[in-house]
Specification:
This protein has one domain: Protein of unknown function DUF192 (Jelly Rolls), CATH 2.60.120.1140. With about 140 residues, it is α+β, with helices and mostly antiparallel strands. It is built from 3 helices and 9 strands; from the N terminus they run αββαββββββαβ.
Length: about 140
């Protein structure tokens, strides 16, 4: 009987802590008329945003993570406990790009900051910004 109770407890604990995220298709429009589509997990709560990509060992090229803020703010990120190199795109209102940080070093505690207040940050696999020719005059739609 104790084993059944223990197994039920473990099961309920795991189910209660399982994270399911809303996903959204993010489209990046480049000035040369090429579009890039990313399927992004959407992080809206402080808990989700604090964890972000931490502890993940891989990220597919067409996947990412979109951090949406309730109010525009100067955003600060780091790569602590993040094992995958990332490109970060800081997004102002209207989908305009504030700044881009490429090929960030995994596990680094160096602070990565937006220049101005932003409403969102898109994290994609390191190297994708260069590969897809994403520039400051590109636009991010979500």
């Amino acid at each position: 009987m104790k084993i059944i109770f223990y197994l039920l407890f473990i099961y309920s604990f795991l189910i209660g802590n399982a994270q399911s995220f809303e996903t959204s298709t993010v489209v990046i429009e480049n000035k040369n008329s090429s579009n890039i589509s990313i399927i992004a997990e959407v992080m809206t709560t402080e808990t989700q945003q604090a964890r972000g990509m931490m502890y993940r060992k891989s990220l597919d090229r067409d996947k990412g993570m979109l951090f949406l803020f309730k109010e525009p703010k100067k955003a600060v990120f780091w790569m602590k406990n993040t094992y995958v190199s990332l490109d970060l795109i800081f997004i102002r209102e209207g989908g305009f790009i504030d700044s881009i940080h490429e090929n960030l070093e995994p596990l680094s505690t160096k602070k990565i900051k937006s220049k101005e207040e932003v409403i969102a940050v898109l994290e994609i696999l390191g190297g994708e910004v260069k590969l897809n020719k994403i520039e400051l005059d590109s636009r991010v739609l979500f």
